[in-house]
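Sequence dictates fold. Next comes a concrete instance:
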Amino acid sequence: MDTFHSLSCHMVFCPKYRRPVLAGIEDEIGTLLLEKAKELDIQVPGMEIMPEHVHLVVSSTPAYAPQFVVNQLKGFTSRTLRQRHQWLRSRLPTLWTRSYYLGSVGAVSADTVRNYTTNQKKRMSTIISRLKSGVFSCSFL
């Protein structure tokens, strides 16, 4: 009997204290995430790495619970990056916070979530430039 599935999740996780420690190592993080995804036999159709958080769109089989996938990805990247980069060990007790956002992709299309994650940097730079130019203001900045 053949089975067909389409299980996709939008995941977001942040470094401890939401410090912007991911700047400069985005490519390395992306490579590690894809390496672990390949080992788990899951697909990552969308990924955006910001200085203080990571957005992923992940598709997997029903064999893995979504929290298992996110914990595997966070654990592998944390262990590897902290072994490679001493400054991460000295600045943070752990790389990632224990919390994360996990949303199923279904209420909106997978393409919508993928576009959201891949356009995150562009949106943030637009907001920052508008704040600096005074087009709109924000009281907490």
Q: What stands out?
A: The chain has five helices and four strands. The helical segments are 26-40, 66-84, 86-91, 110-118, 120-133. The first strand starts at residue 7 and ends at 13.
